[in-house]
Amino acid sequence: MLTFAISRDVNIKPSAPVWLFDLDNTLHNASHAIFPAIMANMNTYIARVLGDGITPADTEAVNAARTLYWKRYGATLLGLMRHHNVSAAHFLRETHDMDGLLSMIRHEKGLGHLLRRLPGRKILLTNAPHRYSTMVLRHMGIHRQFAHHIAIESMRVHRQLRPKPSKLLLRKVMRHQRVPARRCILVEDTLANLRTAHALGMRTVWVTQYLKVGDPIGAAHPPKRLTRPGWVDVKVKSVRNLPARLARLR
C-alpha cells in the first residue's frame, strides 16, 4: 500500500497540475558527493552478497551484477532481492548510511520560493529511502512545500516493490491522488522515468544541470549529448526555469 510520509491540506483548483518531483540530481546536486558515497556503499554491499561468506566478490563481478540488474529490472535493488534474497530495508539502510550527509548537499537557493510559485500540488516521488530523503528535504528547507512525500519504501504494488520507472507505480500514484495523467507533470533527471510517464499521458520535464556522463549511479547515466527526446515536453537546466516554461506544460 502506498503511504505518504508528509501530508498537509493544500487549497488548489480542481484543474491545477499535480507536480511529481524527483529528488536526487533534480532538486539538488547528488553527483557532487552523495552519489559517489552511495556507490561505494553499494559496491561493498554487493561484494559481500556475491562473496562466499568469507571473501567478498571482486570489482569486476560487482560491476557486472550491478549493471545487469539495473538494465533488467530498472533498479539494482530489485535484482538483488530476486536473485539473492536481499532485504530491501537492509540494503537501503546500509547504502544510504553516510557520515556527514548534510555537508555533502549542494543545491540552489530560493527553491522554496520557486515551489510556492508553481500552481498546483507538489509531491516528492523518489527512489531514495524515506530517512535519507527527509533529511535532504529538511536541510534544504523545502519539506513543507510538498503535499506528499513518496519514498521507495512506499512504492509497493500488489505487495511487490515497484520503484520508478514502473507504470504500475505511476498508475497507483494517480489513483491515490485522484487525478488523470494529463494533469500530472513529472520533473526528473532520469530519461527512463520520463519515458514511462509520457507513455501514460503525463507531461514531462527533464532537468539536466547535474547530469554527468559516467555518473557512478547507473540510473542517472545521461546521453553524451543532452538532446531533448520526443517523450520530454520541456528540457530545463534547472528547476528554477520552470515558471518561465509553464505555457509549454499546459
Structure report:
By secondary structure, the chain is α/β, with parallel strands linked by helices. It folds into two domains: 155 residues, HAD superfamily/HAD-like (Rossmann fold); 68 residues, DNA polymerase, domain 1. It contains nine helices and eight strands. A six-stranded parallel beta sheet has the order 3-2-1-6-7-8, covered by helices on one side. It has a two-stranded antiparallel sheet with strand order 4-5. Helix 9 links the parallel strand 6 and strand 7. Helix 1 packs across helix 2 and helix 2 crosses helix 3. The two termini are 31 Å apart.
Name its key features.
9 helices; DNA polymerase, domain 1; two-stranded antiparallel ribbon; 2 domains; six-stranded parallel sheet; alpha/beta; Rossmann fold; 250 residues; Pyr-5-nucltdase; 8 strands
Topology of this structure?
Elements: E1 18-21, H1 34-50, H2 59-73, H3 76-84, H4 88-95, H5 101-104, H6 111-117, E2 121-125, H7 130-140, E3 148-150, E4 156-157, E5 160-161, H8 167-177, E6 184-188, H9 191-199, E7 203-207, E8 234-236
Parallel strand pairs: 1-2, 1-6, 2-3, 6-7, 7-8
Antiparallel strand pairs: 4-5
